[in-house]
Amino acid sequence: MKRAINHLLLGLFATVMLVSCSSGPTLQTYFVDHQEAPNFISQDFPISMLKVDKSSFTEEQNEAFNSVTRLNFIGYKANESNTEDLKVEIAAVKEILKDEKYNELIEFSDKGNKIAVKYIGTDDEADEIIIFGSSKEYGFGVVRVLGSDMNPSKMGTLVGALKGANFDKDQLKDIQNFLDDLTRNYYS
Fold first, then answer.
1. What 3-state class would DSSP assign to 40?
2. At 179, is the pLDDT very low, low, confident or very high (cuts 50, 70, 90)?
3. What pTM did the predictor assign?
4. Nearest 5°: phi and psi at 106?
5. Could you tell me the CA-to-CA distances from 1 to 4, 5, 8, 14, 15 in Å, in that order?
6. Mean per-residue pLDDT for 44-73?
7. Torsion angle, CA of 186/167/132/48, rounded to 10 degrees?
8. Could you count the other beta carbons within 10 Å of the beta carbon of residue 44?
9. 45 to 74, 106, 171: CA distances (angstroms)
10. DSSP structural state of residue 48
């Protein structure tokens, strides 16, 4: 009897391991695997590190800001010699984001720039919001917004508020430079 229970437990453990290993790549593993790779830039920081002047935030914007705990960023800088690698990396991220756990919030293209915003969770509470932007000319960037009880629709108002917010941009200098290059032609 004891032997049968041990075999059953071993079988359950093996099944769990096989199922978890066969689930394919995740955005988190992509970040970890590429954070120090050539042409990539990555940064991970708690939202508390951002010194943001929230005095002009609405109640909704303040609630959205306070629901965010950390940001993860990874970007791939395009250049003349890595065009094929860029295509491969964009395809890899798109394949990960095809997983049914990612709900689409908005997706649009303009002047060769593509932006997709997705989230994991429900329409009322998201555990993770993903912003994926790409351009053949500049590369791509992925921001994982992590928190608890984040409301996807309220996050849009927060983005608008942060554009005009007063915060120490040196904290995000590398990301800001990367995103400026990525979106330079988008708003022109």
1. strand
2. low
3. 0.74
4. -160, 150
5. 5, 6, 11, 20, 21
6. 84
7. 180
8. 13
9. 12, 25, 10
10. G
Partner residues linked to 114 by β-bridges? 109, 134
Rounded Cα gap, residues 98 and 123, in angstroms: 18
- 27-34 and 83-97 are packed helices; what angle lies between their axes, rounded to 10 degrees? 150
Alpha-carbon distance 168 to 118, whole Å? 27
Retrieve residue 94's tokens: 């798109």
pLDDT of amino acid 165: 59
CB 117 within 8 A of CB 129: yes
Question: Over 50: is that where the pLDDT of 7 sits?
Answer: no
Query: β-pairing, 126-135 with 68-77?
Result: unpaired
Higher-pLDDT residue of 3 and 135 is: 135
The answer to whether 139 and 180 are in contact (CB under 8 A) is no
